């Protein structure tokens, strides 16, 4: 079966969305003069990814899963939040602000830097599966041998507020995420 990389699909969705709606990454507030950037909302695109890796050994199933949330805004700012093992989030608005990581803020590298957490999560899930296999006396296997059941769960129009990070001029802190009405 052919497998399409999540990074490729997500970057194409963002590209298509920005071509069809060139104003998507602009501030929503019509009158921004005199306001600081954190005081107005920006249009954004949200994509959630259900990540699942599995290995089937005889009748035993080794499986690890998590959900990732992405926010794309500005030119092109990317924020990513990965669901902790002990919590489940259904939507972007449920993700605590402290979990959002700004992975990119530039149109030339948002596809690489911004989406790099997908690969990090992939290898983290594979490592967890190999730890379970070791406990059962089995050897490690390469992640590519594992079954990847990852899919895009949701694509939503969002609005976000963000500000420049005080410690790192190249980062932006996400302050608020809401659904566009």
Map the helices and strands.
Layout: H1 6-20, E1 42-57, E2 60-73, E3 77-82, E4 101-104, H2 116-135, E5 147-148, E6 151-164, E7 172-179
Antiparallel strand pairs: 1-2, 1-5, 1-6, 2-3, 3-4, 6-7
Describe the structure.
The chain is of the alpha+beta class. It is 19% helix and 35% strand. It has helices spanning 6-20, 116-135; strands spanning 42-57, 60-73, 77-82, 101-104, 147-148, 151-164, 172-179. Strands 1, 2, 3, 4, 5, 6 and 7 form a seven-stranded antiparallel sheet that branches. Strand 1 (42-57) and strand 2 (60-73) form a beta hairpin. The longest helix has 20 residues, at 116-135. The model has no long low-confidence stretch (mean pLDDT 86).
Short account of what is shown:
With 181 residues, this protein is of the alpha+beta class. It has two helices and seven strands; from the N terminus they run αββββαβββ. The protein has helices spanning 6-20, 116-135; strands spanning 42-57, 60-73, 77-82, 101-104, 147-148, 151-164, 172-179.
């Amino acid at each position: 079966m052919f497998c399409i990389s999540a990074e490729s699909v997500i970057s194409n969705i963002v590209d298509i969305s920005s071509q069809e709606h060139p104003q998507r990454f602009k501030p929503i507030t019509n009158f921004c003069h005199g306001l600081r950037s954190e005081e107005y909302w920006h249009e954004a695109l949200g994509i959630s990814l259900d990540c699942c890796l599995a290995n089937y050994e005889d009748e035993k199933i080794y499986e690890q899963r998590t959900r990732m949330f992405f926010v794309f805004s500005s030119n092109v700012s990317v924020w990513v939040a990965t669901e902790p093992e002990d919590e489940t989030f259904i939507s972007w608005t449920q993700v605590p602000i402290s979990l959002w990581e700004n992975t990119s803020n530039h149109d030339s590298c948002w596809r690489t830097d911004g989406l790099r957490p997908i690969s990090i999560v992939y290898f983290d899930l594979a490592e967890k599966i190999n730890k379970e296999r070791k406990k059962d006396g089995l050897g490690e296997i390469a992640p590519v041998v594992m079954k990847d059941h990852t899919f895009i769960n949701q694509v939503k129009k969002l609005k976000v507020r963000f500000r420049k990070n005080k410690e790192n001029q190249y980062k932006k802190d996400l302050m608020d995420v809401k659904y566009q009405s």
